[in-house]
Amino acid sequence: MHSFSVGKHPLLRLLRYAKGYRTQVWSAIACTILNRLCDLAPSYLIGVAVDVVVERENSLISRLGVTNIVGQLGVLSLLTLLIWSLESLFEFLYDRLWRTLAQTIQHKLRLDAYTHLQELELNFFEERSTGTLLSILNDDINQLEQFLNSGAAEVIHFITTVLAVGGSFAIIAPSVAPFAIVPIPFIFWGSLAFQNRLAPRYADVREKASLISSRLTNNLSGIATIKSFTAEPYERSRVMDESEAYRRSNQKAIALSAAFFPLIRLIVVLGFIATLFFGGVAVANGNLTVGTYGFLVFIVQLLLWPFASLSQLMDEYQRAMASIRRVMRLLDTPIAIPTGSHPLPLKAVRGEVRLDNITFAYKDRTHVLKNLSLHIPAGANIGIVGATGSGKSTLVKLLLRFYEIQAGQILIDGIDIRELRLRDLRRCIGWVSQDVFLFHGTVAENIAYGNFDAHHEDIIHAAKLAEAHEFIVQLPQGYDTIVGERGQKLSGGQRQRLAIARAILKDPPILVLDEATSAVDNETEAAIQKSLFVITQNRTIIAIAHRLSTIRHSDYIYVMDKGEVVEQGTHEELLALNGIYANLWRVQSEV
User: Fold this and answer.
1) pTM to 2 decimal places
2) What angle do CA 361, 364, 370 make, to 5 degrees?
3) I need a labelling partner for 41 at 20 to 30 A (CA). Which of 22, 123, 447, 488 fits?
């Protein structure tokens, strides 16, 4: 995993991140510099051309042995053709290299950010909106791509121009050079001041972009609720407020950015006028040739005008840096639940589960479980019941290490789950949640999720065991029917049966049924129970239920209340206790 120090400048961190592409980076930089040098060369050739016409036999080219003026102009023409051809070649090369590099780094950065995101604990996602994370993975990484596509080349062009032209001034006309160079420190000072003031404004722009992305994602996910409560005007006003905040944030950045160019233009004009005046005086005094003077007047614009475009360059740079900071901040997020190193081969799992004095509390909340102990023998079928909020579903999430316990131990086959490789741990547990999530895709793809190479016959067999085959074949395209985002084209009971089929196909040694039949009718539940009797053989079953009929035939039943086990025993033993379980049974039996 990447180890970025928090305090490093985002550009340095990006360069370190791209160190695996040094050859491409240096090739792109070299072609960009050569392109700019070829682009500047015609300005020098103009000075040489004036020198040929005015000085004739005493020109610079004549010193190379070509004294005829026609020959000199011919040499000059060939040089011009060669330089322009090279300029076009290098432009093609650097453009292709930067764009390819942008796509490569964008792809790698997005993939690394997403991979890191997948390894973070559930608590991380509960504290952040989906829209904010999507904004980082899409908008911010795309902003980086745009900067690498064009901004990087512009920065190198700028630096190359300043060094090449400034050096030419110092060599050719040292007496005039100070007048052209004097404005540069003022421009740099203004640019740095501008950058320092602009950086926080663009950071705010990126935050506002995250908020509106979060709002839109949330509303699109809950569109049915919005429609049912006729809340369209209310949600439109909320989107309008978020969009207006984004617009105002951008306006603040634009106001500062727009003021920069006119100020720089005035400084550039002063440098140009100084070169024009003092260079002309030098020619009149015989200290400078006409050709050199023409070159200086022309080239001073190439030295100073790039500073005028510095505002746009800084604008692009700050947008990119703000985005890089957010992406790197995500990559900096520590993994709170690291994987263990102990392997757990699937075929070797017996399925014994032991919870030994575990204590757990969600962040900033009171304890959900307190010194709880359970022993589930391998191959046992146990039931867990209790009121809402008693900690039943939390047990499952702790078993899967979605969260980390604060005290105690959870063991599978005598091994602390913190020592196990997470992939091995979760592969040996099949979980059917009461909150079923189906992916946008076909029925068959959702059943085979996690078993992507499953044969179609196996998918059908699992669906039959889950009492899902009958309704599936009645769908428009059968097993190839698209279920829609989150399975919205199916009923709650249908989604639940597909989730059971998915768990059956996984064929895990430990099967957890968390309210697995809560959304089906009594007749379907009875059919599923018969199927479950078949598929639960030779595996450990943990069934969490509100309906006591679901777990009445379990080998052992635990009754939870406020994070503790308050009753335990078989169905008959618990009825004989005449406690919480017996009261629940009487209430449900009377319904």
Assistant:
1) 0.72
2) 20
3) 22
